[in-house]
Write a structure and sequence with these properties.
The chain is mainly β and 764 residues long. It has a 22-stranded antiparallel β-barrel. It has a four-stranded antiparallel β-sheet with strand order 3-2-5-6, with no helix packed on it.
Length: 764
């Protein structure tokens, strides 16, 4: 009898175990907790491991599977395959962040990005700039491969704040033109990206003139796993190897990842609908459609260790390292002088970024705060330029090294109808600039790009923000920030210039009112300041971009300010979501390059040539007006449509076109997901940027466009993901399907033609 009972028990246990299923994310294959499974008679919720027992459901019953962050799915029990149900995330694209989410970022989790990009999408992009350009309202300029200069609402380079894991990337030598520093951020490491508009400057400070891009890398967790991905791209013969391992033990967990990238010469598109047959095909830098001098390699490393000290305290150690090979500046290598190449060599010497940070989080309620976040960080950044003109024997070498120390302390407190966020911090930057002229055997004196005696830039800030729930339908956000900045620069061996000291104090404020008149509609109105202190690149640089004019220091620069007004309307009903943003940005004391004099002369000798003097000056101001529209619609259960449209108009107070204003651009995305299959088709459109609308100082490289300007373009693209087995995922994408030739706004490099991207990923 005992044997019979034992056998019946084993059969029953086996049957019950067979009814346990796991709910997973269709892209990342991660388990999803708190998923609701509902029929007419029974409702259940999945565990933290995504598990749920469905033995009590009948085979012919329809089970509704729902989660707040995922598309609801209805499925017969008998149709469940391999004891798994895959759900599709509601957000497949990176949208412009709305104000309600922004309040959570600035008040609740100041340094935690809220807009998550599905990992399957981000990991198939070779650079962060490609990811931003294809999945958000950001447009990207490219002067050479291996980088990309993000532009959001006409704010670019040192007017757009970049933050990674709570640490500011903007530094004392961020210039006003176009920056390729985003190339040091590897998309395989990215967990999420937020695009902040609204009162971002109060929370994030110097450089956030109208917004900020906030990157968050993947965190260590309590699930041991190994992930390996091999990727190939056809239009540049690129090979990318990505590896990640996560491991934990007791109260500590660790994540280690690295990426190796080898990129060949980029092939431009062949289909020239714009009718400019030779545009971008300068014989000195191209062979057929292959763009020479666009090959490079790069290695990126990430390590994080998290230690749970007790129920109230934890520490996160974060190490990041990125190093590239030499990268040619393509928009210089294509310069021609007297029908011959102007340069034999124009490269950025190995680009290096090292960051080490420690984040301490203490959650302990007191009268003054509920939690304290402290971040201490150190950055070591090296950049260099190596130039050799035709018929010259010597290389012109200039190198910059920065050591940056940051301390940020943030406090948060929640009261009955109020949430309070306040903090303070300091930042210290040391800049060393060196230079020489060299050949194979010797080195000679050369002028430095920045002050030869070294430079320092020190900042202190304090801020506060208060979010008040005035009523059930009205929220009020108030904020203020004080920033002190001191800059010192020393010229050891230059008779033209004297030592520079520049001190500035800035106070900015913001107010946002959020009103919900009806259930489906939210209206946000805001006024907020932004500011940017003049840095070493603004004040102390000695540099020639075109060989005809030379930029010299101006110690009298003052901060530039942005006054932003914004109205946002959000409408959401059933399967449709619409968002309209209207904004006006007025820039006061705008820093711009103009002709000037030095010691009564309008010219000096620089790099062996007599050049006209230019210097950065504060002008009266400039105005940017813009409109942004986004729409999302779930056509049927497994098909979603998302689209966005952005238009800007920017003018100086003199009525001249403002730099960094991209043309009208739009994106549309159609995605389908079912049974582990995911297909995404998307189109990206940019309108004409006519020559008459380019800035007068040549910042946006009108010389790299056609005689009429930059032609409009439209690319069609698609991507497909499929889990082959439990541990293996196959990914393929076709970018620029029509093999169109085009250049993105402000770029010297022609964009890639038709590109096949193939990746195999294993995870166990």
């Amino acid at each position: 009898m005992k044997r019979i009972i034992l056998i019946l028990f084993m059969i029953s246990s086996s049957t019950l175990c067979g009814q346990i299923i796991i709910i997973k994310d269709s892209i990342s294959d991660k388990e999803i907790a708190n998923v609701t499974l509902q029929t007419i008679n029974l409702g259940q919720v999945s565990s933290l491991e995504g598990k749920v027992d469905i033995s009590r459901y009948k085979n012919n019953e329809i089970i509704e599977v729902s989660h707040i962050s995922y598309v609801t799915k209805k499925i017969y029990k008998q149709d469940i395959i391999d004891s798994k149900i895959y759900l599709q995330q509601k957000t497949n694209l990176l949208p412009v962040i709305d104000f309600n989410t922004e309040l959570k970022v600035l008040i609740s989790e100041k340094y935690e990005a809220q807009q998550v990009i599905p990992s399957g999408f981000s990991e198939l992009q070779s650079t962060v700039s490609n990811l931003l350009a294809s999945a958000s309202s950001v447009v990207v300029q490219e002067s050479q491969p291996g980088g990309g200069s993000p532009n959001y609402r006409g704010m670019e380079a040192n007017r757009l704040l970049l933050i990674i894991d709570g640490v500011t990337l903007n530094n004392a030598i961020f210039r006003s033109g176009h920056l390729q520093n985003s190339g040091t951020i590897n998309p395989f490491f990215i967990k999420s990206i937020s695009i902040l508009s609204g009162p971002a400057s109060v929370g994030y400070g110097n450089g956030a003139m109208g917004g900020a891009l906030i990157f968050t890398t993947k965190h260590p967790n309590t699930k041991d796993k190994v992930k390996f991905q091999q990727q190939f791209e056809s239009n540049s013969n690129s090979s990318i190897t990505n590896f990640l391992i996560n491991y934990h033990k007791k109260n500590h967990s660790h994540l280690t990842a690295f990426s190796l990238k080898s990129v060949g010469n980029l092939i431009m598109g062949n289909n020239r609908l714009h009718k400019y047959t030779e545009w971008g095909k300068e014989s000195i830098v191209t062979e057929n459609n292959k763009q020479l001098y666009t090959n490079y390699s790069q290695v990126d490393l990430l390590h994080k260790s998290k230690v749970e000290i007790n129920d109230y305290n934890n520490i996160l150690l974060n190490t990041q390292y990125s190093k590239s090979s030499e990268i040619y500046r393509f928009d210089k290598m294509n310069d021609i002088s007297n029908d011959l190449p102007k340069y034999l060599n124009w490269t950025y010497g190995p680009r290096l970024r090292f960051m080490q940070s420690m984040k301490h989080i203490m959650k302990y309620k007191t009268v003054a705060f509920d939690s304290i976040n402290t971040i201490i960080s150190y950055q070591d950044i090296t950049e260099s330029r190596h130039i050799q003109k035709l018929n010259e024997d010597l290389f012109n070498n200039r190198e910059e090294n920065l050591n940056i120390y940051d301390l940020n302390i943030d406090f948060k407190k929640k009261l009955k109808i109020m949430r309070l966020s306040y903090g303070l911090g300091i930042k210290n930057q040391n800049i060393n600039s060196s230079a020489n002229l060299s050949n194979d055997n010797n080195t000679f004196y050369n002028t430095t790009r920045y002050p030869s005696g070294g430079s320092t830039m020190k900042e202190f800030f304090a801020y506060t923000q208060i979010n008040i729930n005035l009523s059930k339908n009205i929220d009020l956000l108030l904020g203020g920030r004080l920033n002190n900045s001191r800059l010192n620069a020393r010229f050891n061996d230059d008779s033209y210039f004297t030592d520079i000291e520049n001190y500035n104090r800035s106070f900015i404020k913001s107010v946002l009112v959020s009103f919900k008149p009806i259930k489906s509609t939210i209206i946000n109105a805001s006024y907020y300041n932004g500011f940017r202190n003049p840095n070493i690149d603004d004040i102390g640089k000695i540099f020639s971009k075109d060989g005809e004019n030379v930029v010299v220091p101006n110690k009298d620069l003052m901060p530039e300010y942005a006054n932003n007004f914004e109205i946002e309307i959000n409408y959401k009903i059933n399967r449709m979501k619409l968002q309209l943003q209207l904004f006006n940005t007025s820039i006061d004391n705008a820093i711009t390059r103009q002709f000037g004099n030095l010691n009564g002369s309008d010219s000096i000798f620089y790099d062996g040539e007599k050049m006209r003097i230019q210097m950065n000056k504060n002008i009266k101001g400039a105005i940017i007006n813009g409109i942004s529209f986004t729409a999302g619609f779930e056509i049927i259960e497994n098909i979603k449509l998302n689209s966005s449209l952005n238009y800007l108009k920017g003018l100086t107070n003199e009525g001249d076109p403002l730099a960094h204003i991209p043309p009208l651009n739009a994106k549309i995305n159609l995605s389908y997901e079912k049974f582990g299959h995911n297909i995404t088709c998307y189109a990206i459109y940019n309108a004409w940027k006519f020559a008459r609308d380019y800035d007068r100082d040549g910042v946006d490289n009108v010389n790299e466009a056609t005689a009429r300007g930059n032609p409009s373009w439209l690319t069609l693209n698609m991507a497909y993901y499929k889990k082959i087995t439990k541990d293996m995922t196959f990914k393929i994408a076709i970018q620029n399907i029509t093999d169109l030739h085009y250049k993105t706004f402000g770029s010297g490099l022609s964009a890639g033609g038709r590109n096949y991207v193939i990746a195999i990923q294993t995870e166990f």
